[in-house]
Structures are given as structure tokens and as C-alpha cells.
Records
---
Amino acid sequence: MTATGSTEVFGTENAPPPWVLVPWPGAMVAVAAVGIMVVASIAAWPEMAVEVVTREAGGRHGESVANRGVTAAAMPAVLLGLTVLLSVVLRADHELLKRTPVGLDRSPERARRMFSWTLMGLSVVLVALHLGLLSLHTGTAFPLEQAVAAAVGILLACLGVATPLVAPGGRVTGRLERFRAAQSKLYRGAGGFLVIAGIATAVVAAFEPGVAMMVAVASVAVAFLAVALTAFRASRKSPE
């Protein structure tokens, strides 16, 4: 009896909080990225100017100034906040939708993997942005535009891997069910398209970062618009 009671207490104490569903391994990548940013901030701190002007005064706006303390801490804090937020959102999404028709047959594990890939891509973008912001304070030559555009390409590729996991589940009927079923088949193709577009974005970023960003935005719009329009057309067809 004592052993059983101890086991129950041990299991309860070690169970994850009911309001958290951590998107591993994306969270591990995020923590590693935070570590990289913290180390970079510490290394750059002695050389960082106390303040830098990020935008000159003009027209109706005043001068914009960035403090080195804010610059050193902002991106790591943002990434940690995103990791915590996504963990809470995952749990809330599961708890709120699991008893609805939309939530039936939805796998929390698929959602976890989707958020994990998204967090990996965001980690790369924030590291690139952080290093670029540090360079503004130190005066070090850093290809900020190219680095961020290439990081966006990596994010896009990660989103492409995650896209098939976005395919809606649930149990609905009629036209809505045909729309849902059609989307499920199309998301895999859209994901592959985004992976290719992400690689292309990262390559183009080395030469034309502005063009690379336009490629990324256009690719996302084309992929999901194609899915929506094709699924809508399929939903209008009468079932055989």
C-alpha cells in the first residue's frame, strides 16, 4: 500500500504541468539559440557603444536611439517568450478544441511537431537579427540584410516541413468536409513547394536580399492561396 501510494505521489509530482505542452525539439534549438545570443552579447559588450542612432530625426518623427542593454537582451528575451507562449498555446489549443467537432481526431503530437519546426526557423531568424543589431553597436562589418534574408529562407523551409502537419482534422459534414479533405491532400505538395522556395530564398539572399524577401513572401502567398482555391473548387463538386 505504501509502495503504491509512493508511486502515485511520485508520478503526480513528475507529471508535466497541465497548462504546458512543450514543442520539443524546437524548444531545445531555441534554448541553444538563446545561449549563442547571450555569449555573443557578453563578448561584444566591451566594444558596444552605449547608444546608437537607428533613425535620424526628420519630418514628424524624432531621432530613434537604441540602448546597448536593450539590444543585448531583446532578442534572447523574445525567443524565450515565444517558446513559453507556444507551449501554453499548444496546451490551450488541445484543451479547448478536443471536445468540438473540429478538434476530434486531431493529434496533439502533430501540433507539437508543427510548432517545433516553426520555433527552429524563428530561432535562426532571431540569431541573425541579434548578431546584426550587435554589429550596429560595435561597428563590426556584418551583412545584416543578407543574413536575415537567408535566415528567412531557412524559416520558410522549416515551415514547408511543418505544413503537412497543419492539415485540418476534425469531423464535419457536407461541403465543409469536402473542403477539409481536399486541403489535407494538398498540404503535402504545398509543403514541398515551400521547402524549395526556402532554399531558393537562402541562395538568392547572398546576392539580392531584397529580392529574396520578396520571393519568400510571394511563395507563402502562392502556396496557401493555391491550397485554398483548389480545396474550395473541390468542395463545390457534388459527392459521387
---
Amino acid sequence: MLFRVVERKWWYFLFSGLVIVPGVVFLLLGGLRLGIEFRGGTLLDVTFATAPAAAEVREVMVSLGHTDAIPQGAEGDRMLIRTRALDGAEQAAVEAALESRFGQDVQQSSSTVSPSFSVELIQNAIKAVVLASALIVLLIAWAFKDYGWKAFRYGLAAIVAVLHDAFLVLGVFAILGYFLSVEIDSLFVTAILTIIGFSVHDTIVVFDRIRENLHVSAGEPLNPIINFSVMQTMVRSLITSLTTLLPL
């Protein structure tokens, strides 16, 4: 039995809207918390003999004037502390304060990222997405060139699908950032670009199958052709996604 995909489109729109709309709201509220790679700063990796609570570490950082510090427990007896960029003297003061407060020797390492790196990272990601979007529109328009200027509608539809998938993930992380203080880093950009790649690939496969079926079933209503094309590619899309998740 053929699954009626197109006829149930409003249910899919509703489901997406329930995630994307709140996500956009929390994006506007600043829920998407940028990690050090984006805003610049210092990441302190502190190893304790016995790790204290994150709240206690934050008290020490606040007492030193680092009110933006975010301590987070890590494997073993380690504590990761994210804060603004600290120079050598400030890092030494943090280490001394931690040793004094908790009465134990600590081992501290650090990494500092300048804001210029974060700006370059964001700019390169935006350039990549814009360039890829333009190429996608041209590629799909060429594949559907038999339909004249209407072929560009398929390319624009693919871009809308890409934006949908990207905003879905951004919205989820904005909600997580607002309520759970989850930060995003450079790997998040990689993940978004990967999602965009898979989204475009799946869209092109489905559109190509629609194009073939339009030629084979010329004159038939469009909705059944789209439904049949989606079902033909469904298994392939699921297998591709699952094989990608397995290595993770």
C-alpha cells in the first residue's frame, strides 16, 4: 500500500513547527551559548586529588573576579573551567586559589583561543553554506532543465529543506543552552555542515526519482508520483543515516 506522504504534509509541518518555533524564540533570547572557539577565552583543565563540586570551584573563580567562569566536571578527578582569556599571572592566581581553598595540590593546563579565530571560523562556515546553496540551486535546475524556468523551484525547495534541517538542530541546541547551559563549539559547525550535506544529498536523490517518474508516468497526477518517489527512496535514506550513526 502506498503511503500518502503529500496528503499528510500539514502534520509534518506541525511537528516541525513545534520544535523550530520554540527554537527560534530561544535563539532570539540568546539561548545558543557560544563556546570558547567562538567568543574567545581560556579553558583551564584542572586535575584534583579529589574533585570538588562545580559550585565550589565557581565560588573560587567568582572571588577572583571571574564571574563568567563555567566549571564542569570531567573524567577522573578533573574539572574544566571556561572563562574569559586569562594571562599567565591570572592563571597562576587561579591555581593558587584552588590549592588554598581545597587544601590539595592541583595540576593545571590551559588553552586560549583568540576571538579572531572564532570570527574567521564563522565567516568561513557562512561562505561555505552560501556557495554550496548557490551550486545546489544550479545543479538541481540543470537536472530539471526540461521544465524551463520552473526548474529553479526545485532548487529553491532544496534550500528550504536545508534551512529547515539546520534550524531544527539550532533550535534544539538553543533550548538546551537556555535551560542546561549547553555550549556549542567548532564541532557543532562541523555537525551542521554534515547535516546540510546529508539533507541536500537526500533531497537530490528524491527529486531525481521524481524527475524519472514524471517521465515514466507522464500525465498522471503529481501527488501520487511524489508519494511513490519518496517511498522508493525511503529505505535508502534510512540505511544511509543508520550507517553514518553506527561509527559514532
---
Amino acid sequence: MIAGNRSINYLRISVTDRCNFRCKYCIPSTPFKVIEHHKIARYEEILRITRLACELGITKVRITGGEPFVRKGILPFLEQLCGLDGLTDVSVTTNGALLNRDKIRRLLDMGIRRLNFSLDTLDPEKFARITGRDRFHQVWDAILTAHDMGIAPIKINAVALRGINDDEIQAIAGLTKEYPFHVRFIEYMPFDGASWSWWREMWCVCVCGVCVGCVCVVCVCGV
């Protein structure tokens, strides 16, 4: 696919708006409605759209949510997706809480080699505060299991929050010294209705050393 002078070969697909976490920066504090099931694209529709996209030059697809693994039938769908002609790279972004060794083995068997994990803290208590769920050890075990089983690269996405996890930036970045992980600090994306309405106070100062007082997306590759 050609857009201007750019060649586009990457497609990102959200398969659900539902999630098993209730992250403070993502879920509104006021009541909200998820998309009704009959209004969400069926797997057959997603596969057809992706097949057409592959005919136009798409070779890489990332599956996201919500949390992809809360949707029923996600593994058979991923297996069909990986079998599409022309598709050479399928990856998934997940919080990891629903992953175990058996599921990771199935992902590997169908050809998925890359996973992105959302992990904002290495502190179990802080994890529960941010996500609304006491699942830190399950998530960390899933990350280490994926690493041990050969998933690579593993990318860690951490939302940088002033006064919440900014004291852990060095520790999170330090994971790259012990593991071949790619760590990325993601800008907090405020929106109306977020439960922390004082979002301006949550911005972290730039950690790239180039500018001061801004919010940056920083990739720490361990080099």
C-alpha cells in the first residue's frame, strides 16, 4: 500500500474494547458502556478485511484490544490469521494476565513470535492500585514464561505517571540489562472521563535528556 511517498505494510486491529483490568488512566470513573457484541466485527469479517489488505501489500498485523485474550475464540482466530497468504508477521499486545504456558505454546506453534506486554510498575501493591487487579505475579510469570519459551522480541510498554511510577523509571529500564526486552515509556493519553482528572500533574518530565518538562515516548533497547 502506498500513501504519498510512504509504503505501508503494517495493520493494527483491535478485536475488542473489553478488558479484565481497570487501569486508572484508561477506564472512566463514571459509568460507561462497552460496545454491544453484535456491533463488533466478527472474526470472519476481520479475516476478510485482512485478506484484502494483504492483497494490497500488508505483511504485518498487530492484534490489540482492550485485552485480546478476553474475547472468546481468540486462539482459533489467531491461527486462521497466521495462515493468510502474504502475512509474514503477526504479533499481539496484551496485559498478560490470561496467558499461561499452554497458550504461549499455541501462539508459537501458529507462528507468533512477538508479544507486547503492558506493565507500568514492578511493585505488586502499586500494580493493584493502577490496574484495579491484584495480578502482578501472574503478569510477570507470563512475561518470563514467554521469554523462556522463545518469544522474541518481548516489548514492555510502561505508561509514565508522575507521582505514581516515575520513581521506577530506572528500574523498569534496567530490565534491559537482565533480559533481552525492549522497554518503552509511553505518554499518558488524557481523555474526558478518566478517573484521574488531574492528568496534567501525572505527566513525567522528559527522560531522554534532550528537553525539559515534556512527555516523551522513549524506547530503551538496552544498547
